[in-house]
Amino acid sequence: MAFDRNKYDRDALDKAGKLIKDARCAVVMTGAGFSVASGIPDFRSPGGVWSKHDPEKVASVKALKSNPVTVWKFLLELVRMVHKCEPNPAHFALSELEAAGMIQGVITQNIDGLHQRAGSDNVIEFHGNLSHFFCSECLAEYKVRDVITFDDKKLPIRCADCSGIVRPDIVFFGEQIPSQAYKDAFELVDQADLVLVIGTSGEVVPASLIPPRVKNHGGKIVEINKVSSAYSSMSDITIKGAVEDILPELVRNIIK
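^ thats the sequence. predicted structure below, dont judge the formating
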């Protein structure tokens, strides 16, 4: 289906494209809304994952220790769902922008690995990746295939070497984001004169600090979201709509 420009602010689309083309250092910040079109539900929106599950009971360090079976039932369902999903047009559009040298990196709160699967190279994952697993005791590594094929009746998944509980390499509630990811992200952000905020509500620290930081040193903010976010009032350009429609159109206008 062809892109219907009449559904969107055509002037905003053109201005956003010009900002991207003229930027010296553009970075992208993405959240759960970026992957909804791939079949991965949002976490914080009404009807999202956290409206059905209490994150403290299924995605916290405390819960993993006290009730690992419950946590692993949730994790196994999530891992299997994410593993079946494919990048959507927005993921491929972003990798095309990077390949053209128009963005210098993607800072994502997503744990699905779809940016990398679509071809993006410089991806900084604030919350880890659901395709990597390790023993919480001896740190032995496990592959996603070991997890997907695990017998549901034998949960939780335990280490073959020390019987410790295996966990995904993601940031649980109650944990800090990896220090290297934080360092790499803000080194990039401090060089940026443009940040594209796409598919995120702007509620989670430290990702929420990125757009105002760019703005405070004279940079611009372009926001693409279905609904208003914490950044809408400070954004230079806001385009409301589905990212899987808008971003590919932006790229088509820029890379001709």
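The chain has eleven helices and nine strands.
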